[in-house]
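Annotated sample (chain length 326).
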Amino acid sequence: MKALVYEGVKTLAIHDVAMPVAAAGEHLVRIHGVGICGSDMHAYLGHDDRRPAPLILGHEAAGIVEDGPWKGRRVTINPLVSCGTCSYCRAGRENLCPDRQIISMPPREGAFAQYVSMPSENLITVPDDFPLDKAALCEPLAVSWHAVRLAIDGVHPDMERRALVIGGGAIGLAAALALRAMGWDDVEITEPNALRRRFLEDRCGLRAVETPQKIASIVVDAVGFAATRAVASEWVAPGGVIAHVGLGDNAEGLDVRRMTLQEVAFVGSYTYTAQDFHDTAQAMFDGRLGQLDWFETRSLEDGATAFRDISAGNAAAPKIILDPWA
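Output written by the structure step:
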């Protein structure tokens, strides 16, 4: 099969690779769409030791089951594979499983390929009338759904339902959509890229600004650099919650003194639980997360160019989906 292989810093190429072999309890899925994630970009730029070259990246995927009794089933893929038996898994917190794996990290190759093998419990059935390229958005949407759920759980019920999202990429946009789906209508996104701000406003109907305009009860940092943590510290309301999703760097930035004196809660958020993934998929299928038309599709062969465009800030759409069969 053909796959887009990460060969080293800023180097991707199409290769013919061996077909994956479905292990017991797994299914072979023919990939119809796979999104480029911020973590893929981190690996591409040489900033993620968890993803050493050579490696097939990509974990935001949807497709059609190729084998077994599920053959022909349209599915979106939960790429997080957990053990199912530890205390975290039994408590429904699979994202904290000490033995968790995710496709696009060794030992599991990713989905920038024509096929991938996944356990049956990681496959969510997609309705026949729901496009598979949109179904590939479930993974980034679930990341933000989980973060927003954690943040809302930590907010005092008497606080104003006002939220600030830092970063207008796919995770920031998805956080804004999740907030609205959960009843938080006063949402502002800060995004330095003017091209991206126009896209968010014109195509997604969201309020996008270059710098924050007012304090917020919830601040979602979808970028995760020292500078964005500083913005979160400054613009979160007393008694509010900062939900930190981005993995930009491991530097400073939080104003811990202000957080202490004004009882600001900080919650780190990593991926999602299996229930969050199911809930996100259902919200997508029900239309509660909008039209989901904020991506562009390119061929897998054009993947290296797509990475370069994202890195250079030349991609207006918050998400690029790669089609392995185009």
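Annotation: Residues 138-153 form the longest helix (16 residues).
Annotation: The radius of gyration is 19 Å.
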